[in-house]
Write a structure and sequence with these properties.
Transmembrane segments: 105-124, 136-159, 165-186, 193-215, 221-239, 309-326, 338-359, 366-385, 391-415, 451-474
Domain Major facilitator superfamily (MFS) profile: 36-479
Structural class: mainly alpha
CATH architecture of the largest domain: Up-down Bundle
Shape: globular
Strand order of the largest sheet: 1-2
CATH superfamily of the largest domain: MFS general substrate transporter like domains
Subcellular location: Membrane
GO molecular function: transmembrane transporter activity
Mean pLDDT: 85
CATH topology of the largest domain: Growth Hormone, Chain: A
Membrane topology: Multi-pass membrane protein
Number of strands: 2
Length: 501
């Protein structure tokens, strides 16, 4: 009976063999990768909540003077101030009286969060390379939960800043390690699509903040609501294994084979050849002559590669500055703060989806020019329409955000294709770090709206125009082989000189 049952089973379809020893064992994108994709997506909601949550933690809370015959609440003659708590019962502004000469301290807290995200991305990235993807990922997930809950009970402003920094630190680590875990088991056929769709939960998290804030008007309970979801990360202890690719490259072949066999069984592909093929691939890897590794300085040694590095880094700075800056600036516009932010955040979802189609059919360069142009148009229109109706102002701001939501996934893809292999990590790391610098400056630029509502969109608009101009100097990369060496990086995209007589 057992033989008969075994004979009735369909033979397992062998995996297509490629130059990638890991994908050759488990397939390009099977049932396990699909399950793992949705599992990892859970961690992305929290990154959106904690990164943009400042919008409602420090929501505008009108201040008035209760002293008779005094209208300016910041005047020395005002002896009694009063907050309007009709919309928000409490914010960090009302909690620590961040008004008048201390008004900029509210925006400073968001810059501190962005600094934490930048630091966490780098530190947890190094931890993941040295000690493994799994411990780094679990560490930052649980750090996000614990520090986020501590923020809820902050007794002092400085205490709030310290633990918001740590939340940002953990959030930056979550962004980096979750992406690496996912990309290391997805094959090249679906890697581009998955890398872009991976951004959508961040947009959903951003949009859902307005819903949380609408029903929870006290900042401590609001912070608790966007943090407690992280309890779900407990399932990661059982369901997220170490990256088999990291285990393979660090010589832990037995552990790598064990995980690969489990994935292969889930994908219904043969497991018999995994161990010998992985051992053979690792032996070949050990004997292979290592190519010369590049450094950060190599990005600036030759003129054309230097030019491409500068303009690509500029695109990263602008998109981070515009996206995070305009997300915060929305709260300074008139109208319903909940509806404004819900609509503005929701456009990021179709924007991310559009980036897939645009980059595929229009190419990376033209898509980036169009998306940056949309941001520039929306922002520059807002400069001249700040005295118009709330609907017109919000519409212009949404157009600027929509352009940035298209730009974000494309710069990840474009940068990875533009830099040569020997300095690709250095190039992407530099762009990401400078981009985070833009997001650190964004709240401080938003603070300039207190001196004139037109100043903030003007600064963002000028940067967006600079991004449009700079992108014209970048070469198209769609469908072209990736540059490998520094020499490739210098010649890649150059137009051949016309032969002279």
């Amino acid at each position: 009976m057992a033989d008969q049952k075994q004979g009735n089973q369909k033979p397992l379809k062998p995996v297509e063999k490629t130059n990638d020893p890991i994908i050759s064992q488990i397939g390009d994108f099977g049932c396990y990768q699909l399950f793992f994709f949705f599992l990892i997506l859970l961690s992305k909601f929290g990154t959106g909540w904690h990164t943009i949550g400042h919008i409602f933690l420090a929501a505008p809370t009108p201040l008035s003077c209760a002293t008779e015959n005094v209208t300016d609440p910041c005047s020395d003659d005002c002896t009694e101030q009063e907050f309007d708590t009709s919309i928000f019962k409490s914010t960090i502004i009302t909690e620590w009286d961040l008004t008048c000469d201390k008004k900029s301290l509210a925006s400073l807290t968001q810059s501190i969060v962005m600094t934490g995200i930048m630091s966490g991305s780098m530190i947890f990235g190094m931890i993941a390379d040295k000690w493994g993807r799994r411990p780094a990922f679990l560490g930052c997930c649980f750090m996000q939960l614990i520090t986020g809950l501590i923020v809820c009970v902050s007794p002092y402003y400085w205490f709030y800043c310290v633990f918001r920094f740590l939340v940002g630190f953990a959030t930056g680590g979550t962004m980096t390690t979750s992406f690496v875990l996912l990309m290391e088991i997805v094959g090249p056929k679906k890697r581009e699509l998955i890398a872009i769709l991976y951004q959508i939960p961040f947009n959903i998290g951003h949009a859902s903040l307005a819903v949380f804030a609408y029903f929870i008007r006290e900042w401590r309970w609001f912070q608790f609501s966007i943090t407690i979801f992280s309890v779900v990360f407990l399932i990661y202890i059982c369901l997220v294994p170490e990256s088999p690719r990291w285990l393979y490259t660090t010589g832990r072949l037995d552990k790598s084979v064990k995980i690969l066999e489990k994935i292969a069984r889930c994908n219904k592909v043969p497991t018999e050849t995994i161990k010998p093929e992985i051992e053979a691939a690792y032996a070949a890897l050990q004997t292979r002559t290592q190519a010369k590794k590049g450094t950060l300085c190599d990005l600036f040694r030759t003129p054309y590669l230097r030019l491409k590095t500068i303009f690509m880094a500029n695109d990263w700075v602008v998109v981070c500055m515009v996206y995070y800056g305009m997300s915060q600036y929305m709260s300074k516009l008139g109208g319903n703060i909940f509806l404004n932010n819900l609509i503005a955040a929701s456009v990021g979802i179709p924007g991310t989806c559009m980036s897939v189609v645009m980059s595929k059919f229009l190419g990376r360069r033209l898509s980036l020019i169009i998306s940056n142009s949309l941001s520039a148009i929306g922002l520059m229109l807002l400069v001249f329409l700040t005295e118009q109706s709330d609907v017109i102002q919000v519409s212009c701001a949404i157009l600027g955000l929509f352009g940035a939501s298209i730009t974000f996934p494309i710069v990840y893809l474009y940068g990875g294709e533009l830099f040569p292999t020997v300095v690709r990590s250095n190039g992407m790391g530099l762009c990401s770090m400078l981009g985070r610098g833009g997001s650190i400056l964004a709240p401080l630029i938003c603070e300039l709206a207190n001196y004139g509502k037109w100043i903030t969109p003007l600064i963002f608009g000028i940067f967006a125009i600079m991004a449009v101009i700079g992108t014209f100097f970048l070469p198209e990369t769609r469908g072209l082989p990736l540059p490998e060496t520094l020499e490739d990086g210098e010649t890649f995209g150059k137009k051949p000189k016309t032969a002279q007589a």
